[in-house]
């Protein structure tokens, strides 16, 4: 047996494993790195987050990725070069974290790497009859494995697509295994660039569980701030939006898009929800001359309204749902206040730290859970193609040498 296979076999049989989960989202703010101690597998998974940090991306990373990010046309040579470059960078960031945390790389069983999404296009979006759903994450796992000396499991989304899914959201697998609870109907809400939710009925009925993207979380707000407020990446504390007034005509125009009419579950990305989307709605409503503050107030309410609509829809199918929120959007006080006001059907709004998981770390932890399933899972507990949940094991293995 190859020593790397023997090492994986050994890891899979240990009572607990050390797995580093890596997530680089659509906001391009940084690489989330979560060092997790994972015991068991399947519905017996137990997770302890031993260390977590976000390693901020510098302007070079942001500007290089933005040249290809969510663009239908871009420089193919640059994409080809970025794939190993991002992988190597992520590997170096992991090395830097391990050094800071004083953790021996040899003690880590595997790294779970999401990579950097550069394009996401479910069939409902691309409309080419001869193609299936598509998504592309760069940041080659071989580079991460070679740079860190740690076996790396990556590229999780392609199996989901191969099995008929849209490649996202994958949160449902980790959410179901780790957060489902027989005493409470739960909605796990993540508000990153794009907002998504997982519905977990207390019945535990795997056929009723589902996960879906909702629409924009922070992505259009971030893009608008970056375009109009030099040096700013996002509307910190919603200061800009709080100084403006919601424009109802613009808000209503933004809310009318075929994506919102599609049944759940569905996925989307900044390929749809971007500044061009805003500009089209402004042209349609003759609101091109609004102040930046009024535009931001409207964008904030737009995200809140579409998220609230999805939460209220879920809450109709199960009484007394409790929402557990995560992702950068929880730090936006105006967005949170709007959500509270727009969701009378929700019993309570909480954050995932009430369930023991730092809300900023949740997505990185999710990928650690997926890698743990790839390594030590026995069978998939979820398999419902109607809900976009394929009963497959995801992830590809890269060895260090
Ligand atoms: N203090 C704050 N005030 C307002 N907004 C904030 C604050 N902190 C973070 N955010 C928002 O959260 C975003 C980052 O969220 P997050 O890291 O969850 O995104 P992501 O992982 O890239 O997204 P996804 O994985 O969903 O694509 C920021 O770009 C910003 O819009
Ligand atoms: C293609 C892609 O990277 N999608 C992300 C993005 O960020 C949030 C939302 O859109 C979600 O669908 C997904 O990530 C999470 C981790 C998921 O798959 O559950």
UniProtKB/TrEMBL annotation:
Keywords, ordered alphabetically: Kinase, Transferase
Protein name per UniProt: Anhydro-N-acetylmuramic acid kinase
Taxonomic placement: Bacteria, Pseudomonadati, Pseudomonadota, Gammaproteobacteria, Alteromonadales
